[in-house]
Design a protein that fits this description.
single chain, 753 residues, mainly beta, 7 helices
Length: 753
């Protein structure tokens, strides 16, 4: 699911409470990129792959892409990164799979997708999907019991009513809950949900002392401690009259004020704004339903000085029934042929994601919000069907927001925004970093940075640092892991330099309150079946992916512009200076005051150049004295450009490249100012391959938990997808979701018998 609903919940409030310096930074540019993330399912066993598709677009239907690279990260419940990837964005889509480590613990996991440009904005705007992972071979980790002060909480809802939450094992034993107000028992109506949250139809007054009387199934009763919630400024009521929504706010402390009512949509954009004067202690605003573009919206009310006095989430059913979604059941034979019909899907709904997976592993609209949403309601969007919102779930969400909304907003306020602008990756991967003075820590501007790729696919790049010391190196098409050396120009620059490298991934963690995931006993059969399916496919080696290797050939760093001297073609000489002076054309080694230097003689202008750019095994090298101490037999190849050489925006006084026989600098000491890094390139393209006779799986059983996963970019004349039913008997769900508008288009059950 996308992260669009997060904007609704947080955008207005977050921008209002940001420090002034961060506010001014954000207003310099806008987060115009929209990223939506969908996965093949939401329930996995450890060791399985997560198949994902990310749709990428720019706001206002701009046809031009900004970023070309997407970053994928998988976090565990303690916000430790357990897997990460970089993938290409092509035609507005990025697809692939990310593997859950085999030894991963049971718990909630966060899958996050974003571009480098989005690192300039608060992390809550990044697309994040919450997944559940079970490790059947490991016992559940111990979870801390909530303290006495945390077991019961009470707060005020936007309409003035009472919201409460119970935590811990007690919630499984609750028979009923009653409210005690100022020491007196009451009989106010209560809505209590089995996940521990609930509400009373009691309007909290100033200085109220509230308690809960909890009756257990055993007949015992428990009284909570006395709680005095802080009431909000004003009481809000909502009603629908014809084609309008009418909001009324009242409160004695609002008399004679001018209030501003604002309505924000799911993208955080303002749809409606009105100034309303208080008449007595009441203000009322009528909002035409035609101005709303979603079932959900945020109402924010501010005073004349733009201080927020109220913010709340609301729902109004605009579309009760999906055009395509249905609960039809198809029965198919184990191992038999069947097909998925896409003929009813409208062209405007493409691209679409099609998933067929074991029932219970694909998200279903629940009757109860899960525990992680009680602690992290900012991630509630994955539990809503975009066509229809369950009022029961909305009521639970309103309770949760009332209970810990301030905690969410405080976490948003403390969210760190990059101090320096992170450059978007317009053409592919970039290596970004900063050069600082290793002694003072101050940034170094206009410093020439060299970037050398080592190995059998060499690359060489240069970049100059900006005023803040930052640099950006564009990288050619790379996949997999690479060893890279970065250094600076020691001839014209300073020797006290330190190079700080960004790995490309966001430095700030997702906003998340750790929540234990305790699988329900009703899921035992499902988990067992998932584990068996996973193990059987591993045992029989059923192939489910196809790697399209990068077949582009690596070109020479300087093309064919260097003159090559292979030392084995010449008589062996006694020293490297002798080799340089006798064999290498247009290059001379000179010794003065006990130190060597290299000089290039321009073969066209007949001019001498000092300080040519020297490479040893693809790395810029400056210690000429150490180089001259090598044995000639340690050198395999010398290449020379004996003239001024333009490379990008830089001009060098000729180029000398030396390749040793060992390929690892022949033991030469390298500069302390340089740094070797292992850099992760793009992932190879992968495609989910369904079990069929077209793949060499003859004689093998198919017990997959996901039997089909594919993204279709545009409507095709081939309306049916032929598939083979799995070998395992059970229920499977077919889900088709639009990545264009994030709506569930089809939701069918398939029974394999």
């Amino acid at each position: 699911m996308s992260s669009k609903y997060k904007y609704l919940l947080l955008a207005f409030v977050f921008l209002s409470i940001l420090p002034v310096n961060l506010k001014s930074q954000i207003t310099k540019f806008k987060n115009v990129e929209q990223v939506q993330l969908v996965t093949d399912r939401e329930f996995y066993v450890s060791g399985e792959p997560i198949w994902y598709t990310v749709s990428y677009s720019l706001a206002d239907d701009n046809p031009t892409d900004l970023s070309k690279v997407l970053y994928i990260e998988l976090f565990d419940n303690d916000l430790k990164v357990v897997a990460s990837q970089k993938v290409s964005i092509y035609n507005g889509l990025a697809e692939g799979k990310i593997l859950i480590p085999e030894q991963s613990a049971t718990g909630y996991y966060l899958l996050r997708a974003y571009t480098r440009y989005q690192e300039n904005f608060p992390v809550y705007q990044m697309a994040t999907e919450i997944l559940s992972v079970v490790n059947p071979t490991h016992p559940l980790s111990a979870s801390a019991m909530p303290g006495e002060d945390e077991q019961i909480s009470i707060n005020v809802m936007p309409n003035g009513n009472t919201a409460f939450r119970l935590k811990g094992p007690i919630i499984k034993e609750v028979d009923s809950v009653e409210l005690i107000v100022n020491g007196l028992f009451t009989n106010y109506h209560v809505d209590y949900f089995k996940n521990g949250i609930g509400s009373f139809d009691y309007e909290i007054q100033s200085n109220d002392e509230l308690q809960l009387l909890i009756k257990l199934n055993s007949g015992d009763t428990i009284s909570s401690k006395i709680i005095s919630p802080k009431i909000q400024i004003g009481k809000l009521t909502k009603e629908r009259i014809a084609d309008e929504i009418v909001f009324t706010i009242s409160g004695n402390n609002l008399i004679e004020q001018e209030l501003h009512f604002s309505v924000l949509n799911v993208s955080g954009n303002e749809l409606f704004r009105s100034r309303v004067n208080m008449i007595g202690d009441t203000a009322r605003v009528n909002i035409p339903i035609s101005m709303l573009d979603s079932d959900l919206f945020l109402l924010a009310i501010t005073d004349s000085e733009e201080n927020i006095i109220h913010s709340s989430i609301h729902s109004i059913v605009l579309n009760q029934v999906s055009k395509h979604a249905n609960s039809a059941v198809n029965t198919i034979e184990s191992g038999g042929d069947f097909s998925i019909d896409l003929s009813d899907i409208e062209s405007s709904d493409y691209p679409i994601g099609v998933s067929v997976a074991l029932s219970g592993t694909i998200s279903q609209s629940p009757n109860l919000l899960p525990d992680y949403l009680l602690n992290n309601p900012q991630y509630f969007e994955s539990y809503f069907d975009s066509y229809y919102l369950d009022e029961n779930i909305i009521h639970q969400l309103e309770i949760v927001l009332a209970l810990n909304g301030n905690n969410i907003f405080n976490r948003m306020k403390n969210s760190i925004v990059n101090k320096e602008f992170v450059v978007p990756e317009l053409v592919g991967l970039t290596l970004q970093g900063q050069v600082i003075n290793s002694t003072s820590g101050e940034s170094i501007s206009n410093e020439l940075v060299f970037c050398s790729f080592l190995g059998n696919k060499p690359q060489f790049h240069t970049a100059r640092t900006l005023n803040n010391g930052r640099f950006v190196v564009p990288l050619n098409d790379i996949t997999g892991l690479y060893d890279i050396y970065l250094g600076t120009d020691l001839i014209n620059g300073t020797s006290d330099v330190e190079i700080l490298i960004d790995n490309g991934f966001c430095k700030e963690l997702p906003i998340w309150v750790s929540t234990p995931f305790l699988p329900d006993t009703s899921q035992k059969e499902l988990i067992t079946q998932m584990y068996i399916n996973h193990q059987i496919n591993i045992l029989y080696g059923v192939e489910r992916l196809q790697i399209q290797e990068n077949i582009k050939k690596s070109r020479l760093i300087f093309g064919d512009n260097l003159h090559s001297i292979l030392l084995t073609d010449y008589v062996q000489l006694s020293s490297v200076p002798e080799v340089i002076n006798e064999i290498v054309p247009s290059v001379r080694a000179r010794k003065k005051d006990g130190h060597y230097s290299l000089i290039v003689l321009d073969d066209q202008l007949f001019i001498k150049y000092d300080n040519p750019l020297l490479f040893v095994d693809q790395v810029p090298y400056y210690n000429i004295d150490e180089l001259m101490e090598l044995q000639p037999t340690e050198i395999e190849l010398i290449e020379v450009a004996p003239h001024k050489y333009m490379y990008g925006n830089e001009q060098f006084n000729g180029i000398i490249s030396i390749t040793t026989n060992t390929g690892n600098f022949a033991g030469l000491p390298l500069s302390d100012n340089g740094v070797f890094v292992e850099y992760r390139g793009l992932e190879n393209n992968v495609e989910f391959i369904p079990f069929s006779s077209e793949v060499n799986n003859s004689g093998k059983p198919d017990f997959a938990n996901t039997i089909y996963w594919k993204t279709f970019v545009a409507k095709s004349t081939k309306a049916k997808i032929p598939l083979v039913a799995p070998s395992s008997i059970g229920d499977y769900d077919l889900k088709i979701i639009s990545l264009n508008n994030n709506k569930i288009l089809v939701n069918k059950k398939l029974i394999v018998k």
